[in-house]
Amino acid sequence: MKLAILSRNGSLYSTRRLVEAARVRGHSVRVLDPLRCYLRIAPGGFAMRYKGRPVAGYDAVIPRIGTSVTRYATAVLRQFELMGVYSPNPSDAILRARDKLRAHQLLAAQGIGLPTTVFGDNPDDTDDLLSLLGPPPHVIKLNEGTQGAGVMLTEKASASRAVVETLRGLYANFLVQEFVAEAAGADLRCFVVGERVVAAMRRQAPEGEFRSNLHRGGEAFPAQASAEEQAVAVRSARALGLEVAGVDLVRSTRGPLVLEVNSTPGLEGIEAACQADVAGAVIEHIATRVS
Questions:
Q1: Opening angle at CA 73, ends 214 and 232, nearest 5
Q2: Which tens digit of pLDDT belongs to each residue from 118-130?
Q3: What is the CA radius of gyration of the chain?
Q4: What is the architecture of the domain spanning 117-179?
Q5: What pLDDT, in 10s, does the model give residues 54-97?
Q6: CATH number corresponding to 2-88
Q7: Helix (H, G, I), strand (E, B), or coil: what is residue 146?
Q8: Ordered DSSP codes for 153-200
């Protein structure tokens, strides 16, 4: 199998591990910076070049696309798709996952449990919008934030209104959600590959913090996801069209609730916590799909 990995930095842990896992299994692999790929688009004539050379002959492409380059990099990925190259996470699926509002709508339409979420635009509707959610605490999230950035907890209705008004003044897109207190600052990251969860870790927020992201100082521990949690994770990835995803859940009194579906989940934290070859599972899944 001839494999391309779209990544801005070949030395990043996740990119390196995918390269290693592919080569150990006898596959040819090359890391391509998506911003150095350029495209020719014409009826019946999709083509791509990279640093002056044609890009051709690939069987599969793995997107490792950061949020800051989503628009350009997904256009490059779409070009691969139009050239007949398989990707476990197609460009449109990545765009669905990156838009938290759209993702929540699609997941809810499938009956997948989520924290209750509200969204509105007009300042005149703020009080009624918050009343749809219920009393605080509230979690306010930027629609395209990542790694816990742009996520705030407000403990009073007046604070929720103030944050909402500030974000509207900045023309930011955001969601407001219920705070799931019984989660106690912990969530469950289920790493989905194809139709199964290949590894799961519990992430615990540090004292005084409600965000459990490892980039925010959270700690990771190996976890055993229940059959229900695994089913929810796989259904969530499938609902957005992703074959490889990090699905973040919280355990609540009404069952697992999906916080986010990550289309470019990092490998370092979960491989270290679970002592699992997650990169290998990704490569093996891709190999079965292109064989």
A1: 50
A2: 998 888 889 999 9
A3: 20
A4: 2-Layer Sandwich (3.30)
A5: 999 999 999 999 999 999 999 999 999 999 999 999 999 999 99
A6: 3.40.50.20
A7: coil
A8: EE-SHHHHHHHHHHHHHTT--EEEEE--GGGTTEEEEEEEETTEEEEE
